[in-house]
Amino acid sequence: DGKIEVIGKWKGGRTGIFREGKGYGGHAKGTKGEGEVGKYDGYAPLVVEAVRMFQTGKVPVDPQETIELFAFMEAADESKRQDGKPVKLADIIAAARQ
User: Fold this and answer.
1) pLDDT value at position 52?
2) Whose CA is closest to 40, among 25, 50, 26?
3) Domain ranges of the chain
């Protein structure tokens, strides 16, 4: 169908699949069940978290998780550049730190 699909594989046999779709949100499946995730509620929740962060000095998302999310996206792009070859997140993160 021409839509983007990215597959991530983690230690322990976990797999994550991103498939391009319309709008925001997603669907997660796991060993404990499945359900909708990432519903778009406008910018208000983002602003609330940003204000809370500035007030408390505590970030709402672990910085390592943020780095891994960006690395996952870059790994997907790098894999595409290499005709679908698997790319390790550790390699992407190491390259970014140089």
Assistant:
1) 97
2) 25
3) 1-40, 56-98
Q: What is the DSSP string of 13-53?
A: G-EEEEE--SSS-EEEEETTEEEEE-----SHHHHHHHHHH
Residue 28: per-residue pLDDT: 81
Q: Is the pLDDT of residue 53 over 90?
A: yes
| Helical packing angle, 63-81 and 89-97, nearest 10° | 110
**Position 60 pLDDT exceeds 90:** yes
CA distance linking residue 44 with residue 49, whole number of Å:
9
Distances (CA, A) of 90 to 1, 5, 63, 66: 31, 21, 16, 14
Q: Dihedrals φ, ψ of 7, to 5°?
A: -115, 125
* Residue 6 three-state SS: strand
d(CA 39, CA 95): 33
Q: Name the token pair of 60.
A: 């709402």
